Amino acid sequence: MPASLPPAIVRVAHRGAAGLFPENTLLAFHPAVEIGVDMLELDVQLTRDGALVAMHDQTLERTTNGTGRLSDQDLAALRELEAGHGERIPLLEEVLALADAAGVRLVIEIKGSGEASSQRIAEALVPMLSTAGWVDRAVLTSFHAGALRRVRALDPRLPCLLDPVPLDGSLSPRAVCEQTLTAGANIVGYDFRHVTPALVKECRLTGLTLWSWTPNSAEDIRRQVELGVQAVVTDRPDVLNEVLHDFAL
User: Is 14 a catalytic residue?
Assistant: First the structure.
């Protein structure tokens, strides 16, 4: 007999349906919405001329037919590149429009090569979200604690998620929570391979929400749900929905 579905499992599509389509493209975001998710996750970076675009890597080679660093390119040049299946690198405004039309929320990861560049991204991102009416519909996340502190200084209404470092699972549950609190964040984002009952308990006792990122197989997703995380961030929202359906039977 399947277990009862735990409450408040937030379904987050990592870089869209990135396990099925080119990541961080409109082609990946549209199917994720159609599959059924609560939030779309994307990465944002600044071009040389100050535009916010959706892309994960600092360099262009892995996901486009371009070369070099993204931050060295103007928007016009980037928009000429191919990002898979004929897709272009999307502007943040395009993803906002897609999510707005679909009625889903966003998880926006602030990238950057270090604390200084990530804070510059935050300084461009937060006013845009405020102007566009997204402050109550977005969660901002980063591996850079300084970026999240800058977000909170600019607009304390924005919920923030920290991915504590190092990423190898060596942090104690208490250290994970202390890093998150120091960053001014209220959500912990953690690699699913290192989520343990002790971490789930420590987050609960500390008053932090715990999100598990990138379990993609049914077995791994089921384990995260059973552990009691509040959200699953996955490249395979189709598999996530199948697992949650099994729990609800």
Answer: yes
Catalytic site residue 144?
no
Q: Which of 14, 30, 85, 194 is catalytic?
A: 14
Q: Which CATH number covers residue 184?
A: 3.20.20.190
Whether 146 contacts 182, CB under 8 Å: no
Which range of residues forms the domain containing residue 232?
Answer: 10-56+92-248
176 pLDDT exceeds 90? Answer: yes
Total structural domains within the chain: 1
Chain segment 197-237, per-residue pLDDT in tens: 999 999 999 999 999 999 999 999 999 999 999 999 999 99
Name the band, by pLDDT with cuts 50, 70 and 90, for residue 6: low
Is residue 174 in some structural domain?
A: yes
Q: Which of 56, 144, 194, 245 is catalytic?
A: 56
The one-letter code for the residue type at 100 is: D
